[in-house]
Amino acid sequence: MYSAIFAIYSPFRGVLAATPAENTGNPIVGLLPLVLIFVAMYFLLLRPQRKRQKENAKLQTSVVEGDEVVLNSGVYGFISAIEDEYLWIEIAEKVEIRVAKGSIARKVSTPTQKTEE
Q1: Cα dihedral sign for 91, 66, 103, 82?
Q2: pLDDT higher than threshold 60 for residue 92
Q3: How far is CA 39 from CA 30, 43, 49, in A?
Q4: Which long-range contacts (CB under 8 A, 24 or more apart) does 21-25 make?
Q5: What pLDDT is stored for residue 91 in this prediction?
Q6: What whole-number distance in Å separates Cα of residue 60 and Cα of residue 63?
Q7: Nearest-angstrom CA–CA distance, 86 and 102
Q8: How far apart are CA 103 and CA 71, in angstroms?
Q9: Residue 114 has pLDDT above 60, yes or no
């Protein structure tokens, strides 16, 4: 008797009900947040990383002797020789270091001087 009264007047009567709740939702809607998370991760993380990798590979193949470059360590220098996977960088007069091609951060663009006419 008490359980019947408790079930009728309780705010938790849906929890105590003997019949299961009907599931009328579409199962695809349940997967939608997972798909949206994957798409967001692709555009925010994976795509920019691939773009940086392509730019870095393009930079490593485009360097030639005489280019001024900055290494990942912050060292500036001119490329004096190119080997298979290594570069010889002249960082001071008669001072050269051998570094991996992957250590190039960027090329230094030397400003061109405008000639006055």
Answers
A1: negative
A2: yes
A3: 16, 6, 15
A4: none
A5: 93
A6: 6
A7: 9
A8: 5
A9: no
User: What's the helix, strand, coil split of the chain in %, to 5?
Assistant: 45, 25, 30
**What's the rounded Cα separation, in Å, for the pair 69 and 75?**
8
Tell me the H-state helices in 1-117.
2-9, 13-16, 27-41, 47-62
d(CA 90, CA 33): 54
Helix, strand counts (H, E) of the chain: 4, 5
In the chain, where are the structural domains located?
29-107
77 neighbors 90 (Cβ within 8 angstroms): yes
